[in-house]
Amino acid sequence: MEMLQYDFMQRALIAAVLVGVTAPAVGIYLVQRRQALMGDGIGHVALTGVGLGFLFQTSPVWMAVLVCVLGAIVMELVRSRGNQRGDIALAMLFYGGMACGKLLVSVSAQAGSGSLESYLWGSILTVSPGDLTVIAALAAVVIAVTLGLRRQLFAICQDEEFARVTGLPVRLLNLLLAVMAAVTVTVAMRVVGLLLVSALMVVPVAAAQQLTRSFAATQAAAVALGVTVAVLGVAGSYQADLPSGPSIVLLAIAAFALLSAAATPLARRRHRAAADAGPAVCDVALPEQRTAATASGADGGAARAEDPSTSPGLAQ
């Protein structure tokens, strides 16, 4: 508990809680759409925003938000077109964003290699009071959108055509989801790092899916797991003097492995219990008259079956 005596650790833990909530809350929609690596691509683009912040001596977080939002909109527009060159365009966007960010950081006089490392891998020492205010404001927007529009976002993630038929603004919701993913990347980059933020958006969701079946239960479990690994990762990085980003991601992967190992025997036990119970049996007694009528009808049917002359098909 001694780490709570330091202001920077208090800020780091608060930021970890916010990141643990927002990353899985957005990541579950990306997993549903099979776009698990979208956060990784946005993280590459965000490095350009960080470089612009260093170059113009402004807040790297706000510049990263601006660049990430623009990049996410471009990514969504390219994805919606569905042409064969889309993958090539996205690849150039991702790697061009990383290369441009590195160049901008190298020519700026404000940042050195240590500052860039803190954005790439996360650092608990770099969360300033101003950064915490920005993170809290952006996290509030992400949580409000992902929870308030959960039904609509779930609909477009499951079946865009059905959502369009029902009258939902599919294009607008797709762009909104891409923007929320971009904002989440900038929220998490000071704690997890730009290179690892996608893992915190995906791994807790994949781990929660091992034990849950409904969308709401999976989202709640993923958020709870994200907060747990984020807080434990930050606390462990303080104790062991390690970077917070890799610590959080490795804890999330370990949680996924444990839940996957526990899910297999649970599934076998449920299957065995269902097999031992046997088929469902009707325990409602039939009235005697109905039973007698059924029996007589069965006897009559058997008699007609034995007498070919009474068969309708043969009579015709």
TrEMBL record:
Question: Which SUPFAM superfamilies does the UniProt entry name for this protein?
Answer: ABC transporter involved in vitamin B12 uptake, BtuC
**First-listed, main subcellular location of the protein, grouped into a coarse class:** membrane
Please report a single Pfam family linked to this protein: ABC-3
Q: Which compartments does it reside in? A: Cell membrane; Membrane
| Annotated Low complexity bias | 292-303
Q: Which family does it belong to?
A: Belongs to the ABC-3 integral membrane protein family.
Transmembrane region positions? Answer: 12-30, 61-78, 90-112, 132-150, 162-181, 187-208, 220-240, 246-267
- Segments for region (Disordered): 292-316
Q: By what name is this protein known?
A: Metal ABC transporter permease
Q: How does it sit in the membrane?
A: Multi-pass membrane protein
Which InterPro entries does the record associate with it? ABC_BtuC-like (IPR037294), ABC_TroCD (IPR001626)
Taxonomic lineage is:
Bacteria, Bacillati, Actinomycetota, Actinomycetes, Kitasatosporales
Keyword list (alphabetical) reads: Membrane, Transmembrane, Transmembrane helix, Transport
